[in-house]
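HUMAN: Mind making up another protein with tokenized structure?

ASSISTANT:
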Amino acid sequence: MAEVSRTALVTGGNRGIGHAVAALLHGRGHRVIVASRDGDQARAAAERLGAGARGARLDVTDAAAVAELHASVGEVDILVNNAGVQLDWGEEPTGIDLALVHSTLEVNLLGAWRMAQAFVPDMVRRGWGRVVNISSGTASFDLGLPGRCPAYSVSKSSLNALTVLLARETEGTGVLVNAINPGLVRSRMRPDAEQSPQEAAEHIVRAATLPDDGPSGAFLRRDAVIGW
């Protein structure tokens, strides 16, 4: 059976994992909005995808920018909260500048929260929607919060908590909300990682297009539910 064409919004969609996700969704026939802090880069990324894609400037830390995007693009069916920062590798909790923690939370947690507040109510009203929050293995209590990046770990652990809260709020509405740990992916942050953005995008897109009986409020690694 052919996949239903949906409208998908990918934050941080101009490069890396975000662009790979946008490209894969577009390749499967979905209309894609590529959002990025740099509007020119977003539009250039959308042009590379072709017809059915559009670029939009978006700073997820700016409530007015989120509201402006919602007014511009209207309702979406799929929201991939991919925009994120990792600013504190090698820091320790007792020594890190809390201004750095604040900046990290503004993007990784509150940015996704602003997007959910703007776009999830439309999904609930229509009775269908998918939200995927891009998390991290460093957020996992099950794995012992590995790594030396306290602000990043706390921000992604908090994003996981937000995922559960949104899933509970939307239970029975046709909206599924999940977090995914894509694993280590080659990027400017981790150029040594073995997994390509395209490989990670396969699993993210599956989470973004789950069937109606799929999980909600889960932490996913590839196609399996893992411990928080």
Remarks:
- The domain at 7-226 is CATH 3.40.50.720 (Rossmann fold).
